[in-house]
Amino acid sequence: VIKAFPELFKSKLPEKLPEEAEKLLSMLDSSVSRLNSRVDQMAQITSVQTGGYAFDTESVELNKSIQDKIQEHLEGALSNENTLSFGSDETYERYGIIDTRAFGEILDELIENAIESTKKGTLTISIEPNDSIDSIHQEDNSHTHNYWVISVSDTGKGISPEIKELLFTPFIQQGGTLYRDESKGGLGLGLYFVSLLVEKMGGKIWFTSELGMGTTFYFTVPSSETT
């Protein structure tokens, strides 16, 4: 109903409107889009927390899933004059046990954050065996070599040290403030949602970052045998 309101409103107006009225209508459209985005995201979080989000895991070749996402976000990366590429050997097949919808939503959020925080930089998505990543949580030995580690790296502005411990909590944004910029249409729920999805698929998520140098997010998914 909310989404349809601007179109319904415009249908009652004359075809030709003054420039100022057109601007106001555009602002209305943007405001409604942001509101819908927030409602949808909060509904998704509630769904995951209450068991309503149906996870359907299967063995999937991960290279293609990642490269498909890279293609989807190339235009967005270019809009900030960034390069976006796959940083691992494309010829080596890697199979993981994932829910394809959840895996896609995780990558969407991490790639979009990387694009937003980087200008005229480099964005790289890689996948490696768990035991080849030096920055795996050393305090947690529950992960074995039967996991893949996917990383999303950027050469952007980095993350403020004061919020590093809070980044996966609700209403914290990667840029370092309590709430996201209103113009971005978010409430700082994206990384919290991502952390829920990763955990539900049996993985872990963490990051490394240096102010002014960039950030790398890592998350793990269970591996599966090649069939």
From TrEMBL:
<keyword id="KW-0418">Kinase</keyword>
<dbReference type="InterPro" id="IPR005467">
    <property type="entry name" value="His_kinase_dom"/>
</dbReference>
<dbReference type="InterPro" id="IPR003594">
    <property type="entry name" value="HATPase_dom"/>
</dbReference>
<feature type="domain" description="Histidine kinase">
    <location>
        <begin position="1"/>
        <end position="225"/>
    </location>
</feature>
<dbReference type="Pfam" id="PF02518">
    <property type="entry name" value="HATPase_c"/>
</dbReference>
<dbReference type="InterPro" id="IPR004358">
    <property type="entry name" value="Sig_transdc_His_kin-like_C"/>
</dbReference>
<dbReference type="InterPro" id="IPR036890">
    <property type="entry name" value="HATPase_C_sf"/>
</dbReference>
<dbReference type="GO" id="GO:0000155">
    <property type="term" value="F:phosphorelay sensor kinase activity"/>
</dbReference>
<keyword id="KW-0808">Transferase</keyword>
<keyword id="KW-0597">Phosphoprotein</keyword>
<protein>
    <recommendedName>
        <fullName>histidine kinase</fullName>
        <ecNumber>2.7.13.3</ecNumber>
    </recommendedName>
</protein>
